[in-house]
Amino acid sequence: TIYLVSQNRLSAYDKKSRQLFWTKMLEDDIRSTTVHQGMLILYLANQQIIGLNDEGNILWQQHLPTESITGDRFIPCIIKNSDDPRLDRSIMVIPSKRGISILDPVRGETISSLTFKHDLDALSVYDSFANCFYAVVGNAVLCVELKIVN
Judging by beta carbons within 10 Å of its beta carbon (0-12, 13-18, 19+), is residue 32 exposed, middle or buried? Predict the structure, then answer.
């Protein structure tokens, strides 16, 4: 399946025939998309995260508590067991203006969240050796470690 995004419109096409499967209009602009375990995960400009199946049906929907941030370096990412063997399932890390949220990408449930006193200026990719992210908040570089309880 090929997914095409234009503002708040999402279209799914058959990869071989290029035939349109379905089109869905969402509440706000789509900031990013991720495919995980056969599910399409959308991150919207209005702080919503939506999990869709192949038919375009909403499986789950989650509203994040803080304002989202634009920019490529703030795109949600998925950390898998291959990235951190301590994980028994994948997690989704979602940066926002004043924090970081951790979601279960299959169920859409918030596992944990962290709120900063100042705006998040930058967030590194996951450091699988040190099991952490590095966040620039205010004038400080913070090491955000993942404490995992399976």
Answer: middle
